[in-house]
Amino acid sequence: MKILIINGSPHKGNTWLLTEEVKEQIAVIDNTVKFEEIHLSELNIPFCIGCSMCFREGLIFCPHNQYIQPIMDKIEGCDGVIFSVSCFQGAVTAITKNFTDHLAFLLHRPRYFYKKALIISTTGGVSANSVTQSLANTLPGWGFNKCYQLPIVALSWNAYKPTEKHKKKAFKISKAFYMDLKSKKLHSPKIGVLIPFNLFQAMCKEYTPGSEYSTQDGVFWKKYVGMRYAPGIPLPIYKMAIGRIIFQIGKYLSPKMIVTYKK
Ligand SMILES: Cc1cc2nc3c(=O)[nH]c(=O)nc-3n(C[C@H](O)[C@H](O)[C@H](O)COP(=O)(O)O)c2cc1C
């Protein structure tokens, strides 16, 4: 089993310390797990400049593709991803936000349907849960099948010592994450996840090659025609029906709200 760890903090501080604890805990359960680390602060990814090339033409036209594509390949090549992100001003760190901005196009063209995530954050006093929750809101839109959250109040700047209570909480969540990865069980998506999947799929016909404002959405969704969610993911009949309604709404709305761009 391969677990990719993305360190979205600008240093190896309290959150990294907790992440190392989690790494050790998982290794105790299964010493064959292979970890790979990406430290975003070492990559010096320039800020997303908002050119929207990823949305329109595809990621290969992103001016920062050489930084982003290798990370996406690593996500593709692992079973699960651990995101390790400090709480700065009640939110994710700037380098994490910059990274997720570069992947915002995944909401239009999701793909990581068979991946699961564990999101770890520490805070001085409050809002670690806002950090983990904000990523747990974003990742299912990219396709992630399940997100586990480990928010911890460290009450410290750079001198955090995990308490026994914190270690127990970390173990409980890490074990649940590991067991879920091992089981390869695929979870049914929440209704909120069906909205972008079905809306963008329905709206893509306005953006097919040759249309006035064609984008990669017009190409991407062809492989999901007639599907209300990704193949192999359990979708009970009522969610299928909800997906169909969302799809119909998207079909109705799409000609009325075509997104333009400067040529
Ligand atoms: C720039 C900055 C912003 C912070 N913002 C908050 C905050 O909003 N709420 C809070 O309780 N602690 C805040 N803290 C404290 C950190 O969240 C806390 O020390 C956390 O454990 C840092 O994790 P790290 O060492 O992995 O970076 C902040 C610290 C820094 C340096």
TrEMBL record:
Residues 1-140 form the NADPH-dependent FMN reductase-like domain. It comes from the Bacteria. It holds the Pfam family FMN_red. Keywords: Flavoprotein, FMN. This is Iron-sulfur flavoprotein. It comes from Clostridium omnivorum. The lineage of its organism: Bacteria, Bacillati, Bacillota, Clostridia, Eubacteriales.
